[in-house]
Amino acid sequence: MKMFMSDNNSGVHPKVMEAMLNVNSGHDYSYGNDNTTKEAINKIKEQLGADVDVYFVTTGTAANVIGLSGLLMPYEAVVCANTAHINVDECGALEKFSGAKILQIPTENGKICGEGVKSFLHSLGDEHQSQPRIISISQTTETGTLYSIEEIKELAEFAHENNMLLHIDGARIANAVVALDTTFKEMITDTGVDLLSFGGTKNGMMIGEAIVSLNKDLSKAFKFYRKQGMQLLSKMRFVSAQFVAYLSGDLWRENALNANNMGKYFASSLSGISGITLKSEPETNMIFAYMEKDLIKSLQKKFDFYVIDEETNLVRLVTSFDTNKEDIDKFIKFAKEIKGII
Asked: Residues in domain Aromatic amino acid beta-eliminating lyase/threonine aldolase (predicted)?
């Protein structure tokens, strides 16, 4: 039985697994000096433009923390939504590793704008307060919403006008690109983003993310931060090979498209069941819905998913690259049986 807790629970796409097996023959250079890593970097440059720096790491937290730390002084701060992964789900790693502070903006939909950042700018130059230096947003957000291309561009312009930088946590960046029918370059490079945490694990890879700097002047010390952060992999080719497969032949797009389509199918199927109310129509592969408490308890005996808010009975259901209609139909059938619909 497949899970709906997270797209982290899915397996590895066969093409990605095959790519890892293919580099497991003989010996190769270590610490990223192999040809596979060079090819993977070129694959990312094909998507984002030639003038980027790429550093592979193992996890999304590592990509966020090492990338952001490489741009921050300890007296500086990152401004983000209160729902942001760096604020909620990384155990204070950024603040411990960088010494910098996180300044959070309350938000209902996981999105922030320049207007929300303005209140923190009054502290600029005041040695008693942390100095806001980076705006960090998630695309897709943790609440399943999306920033439009124009919204990202406006945030980048606001950041640069105020001597700040814009970072995107792209754990589900492929889902966002597919949902908005755009490209990585149009969403990231052309909007003026400075730093991207490029995720793949949630979309068919086994392990590995990439720190992508869109400004090489900013990332000159990143290789040292990566080493200090214990993320310089000796056998890096096994991560790099995944990115080569992932970014070849639009595999990333096929995976994200299926996950998104299954999210819409799931939401549509749920909407006809009493005791379930969608919070909103899903924009990608995350569905948020209010469910009766007894229904949640019964469903969780057979299916795994998260309850996001115990007070309001808000749940999150996530589809993956390998989710199919039959997986969802089993969930729907069981829910209907519980409610006595069939």
From this structure: 4-292
